[in-house]
User: Fold this.
Amino acid sequence: MARLREARRLLVRTASTAQAGVRALLRERGVRYRSLWIANVLALTAPPHLIRVLARRPEVERIAADATVRNVLLGRPAGGRGALAGAGGDPARAAGGARLSDGGDGGDDTPPEEPPSVPSHIPEIAADTAWQRHGVRGEGIVVGVLDTGAKWDHEALKEQYRGWDGTKAEHAGNWHDAIDEANEASPDEPVDADGHGTHVTGLAVGGTDSVHIGVAPEAKWIACRAFFGEEAEVSEIVECLQWFLAPTDENGTPRPELAPHVVNHSWGIFEAREEIKQAVDALDEAGILQVVAAGNFGPFCSSVTFPAMLPNVLAVGSMAENSQDIIAFFSGRGPGIEGSRAPDDPVPDVVAPGEFIWSASNDAGYLQMIGTSQSTPLVTGLAALMWSAEPRLVGDTALTHRLIEQTAWPVVNVEKECDSPKTYPNNVFGWGRVNAAGAVEAALKLFESEPEKPAPPAPPAPPAGPNPEPGPQPKPRLELTGLAADGKCFRATRRRGAGRRNLTLRYRVSADAIVTFTLERMRNSRVPSSCPGERRRPGRRGRRGRPAALDAAAIGVTSGRTADRERGHAMRVRPFGRRSARGRAKAGPNYVRLSQLVAGRRLPAGLYRIQLVARAPGATSARDYLKFWALR
Assistant:
């Protein structure tokens, strides 16, 4: 809770300071505006002459149109068995637009009218096994849905709606409509003019005593509507992300304690928007897990949409119906666009069932739909099960990603399609088909402190098929002995002969592990004069001296025992410009060079932090930090 409050406080303070002059000018001119502090932007409508005035102000970094992003193929009920439901779409037609990642119409229009008691997507990801084996169904977890809204009083959603107490509804803090113009008769309560958001919400948390459609049926849900019909504005999407960080009560007061634990994004756009990226990053920094649809523009390679291509979200593709090793025709493939992810970081991350999926409809009944929109909430519900089973995992989004990935049933891509660096994981199936029972067991094992404690039962075997059962294996506790580097200050330029770029970090792990390195530039950080090369030479005004020899003893290292304090410091200064890389490390001494994180880019002067986290299923994660100053 404190982490959420601090995250909002810092974002609001940064925006208030940076926007003060522009806000005063707009108030003086009588121009209405919205401050989207989560991305430090202002949304407004202004005449051309005022836009030119704003563009000349030094604190204005850029001015961009509040583009209307279009969903080119809004959801339709799935047709007969031979129908692809238009899920592939036309990428050329959709360029620059948004698309709610689901199916369309076509084929035989006579699907079954009622779902089975337990639809096939539940056992296909072993969610029912997780319910029975661990008695966990999402209790205590709140899921946020950014979509077209939701029919809150549907029989499969009403009891799970956080705003319903059994006798009356309280919508403030549980529903937000980011659309400017009221398109509904009662916009103050959750509505869904399309049905897409209702279907998605049902797959994450929905269900009744007789129909079990959702993966986490005891979790609660809240929703924010950004899409109406086929359209949403970028500012409306950012507004929803801001609201999720601090939902507002009936008085309009932001309350971070009402924030959801997990946010479901069953939508995507082709153009990467910096405003949305900053908002997504802010939610991740606050410990809110985000699960994103990979898009429906397969079978083309590099068809994963934004924001699924970002490294700090969990991107989800779709499996074909009743299959363990066949990708759905429409499922988005990697690799991501250049610079979006590390070369060895596949996208999508995982896959889940996505064809002919039963869930709630906005006419109070049930229907089948297809698309990565339907696969995504299944993984959202899986994350809710994990965090409900092991509350100490709540907020650790990176570790949750790894557990979901490493417990998935692997699907090998022998041909290494779509520039996959290896057969597994790959850019078609990612790490494989999600395994709810295995992921919950891995979460429960993660914090076991007594080695003699009996291990939980093994995860269930997948349905008959060629895929192996990986399952997490018990491993020793991971320990980091510390970091070593060339020095605390080093030159950031790449001029010939200035060779301080390959800053080397040395570390040791006690067992084979997945190690993640994250480079963050800290905000409001000035290089101190104590750094060699930052002192001015006498008699040479305004010029910096050359860096002196670096002092290896001046390394800014924080041990794992004080990691919590260091993480708090990182939140206080709000890191930005993150780049990450990860790979497998063998037991014993290891090293990584800064050049692997910088990837050939110039490193601006300032304070940086590198976080190193070593993880393995069934073992306690270990982390350490290095802080250093980059010179000009």
